[in-house]
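Quick note —
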Amino acid sequence: MGKVKIKKNDVWIDMTPMSDVMVLLLTFFMLTSTFVKNEPVKVKAPESVSQIQIPEKDVLNIFVDKNAKVFMSIDNTKQLGETLEQMVSTGGYSSLSPLEVAKFKECAMFGVPMSQMKKFLAMSTEEQAKLMQATGIPTDSIDGGMSEFQQWVDAARTVNTDVKIALKADADSPYKTIKRVMNELQDMDESHYYLITSYTTDEGKHKDK
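Predicted structure written out below.
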């Protein structure tokens, strides 16, 4: 008796719905993702068990590195440029061109005296990092008034009255520098701010909080 041959039908799967889903997912992640800029100065925060999350927007970040230098960053690039312009107009510093302001808005972090701002903005990213590491934002008062550090904080508050302040100090930062930054914030009636530490989990893993 001969074998019965079973007719095989080709299986065709419509991949159109899957392609549509993949495009939608890709679009979603592209629109919702935020790109972290490379920080020119690294600050290794001390560890803690605090689980309080800092806000994700409208934040003025203050950094103190292990060499007692102070730096800042603002997450909103529009507000970053406006803060620089406010700093120039109220502090009586040398005016900056729209091109220089635009370049400043590209900085992931800033931290040089205003007297060197034009020089800073004319440099490459690598040169900017070296200058920042050698200078930082001055915390000495100017003619008995506010320091440049306080002027930056005041300018950021003027641009955005809802700005939150977060302080991140290196684990090896000199205590007197951290104390000075805190005192200058207190002198400006800024007693509420976030202290960023490196959160330690039970497994020994850590992340910034």
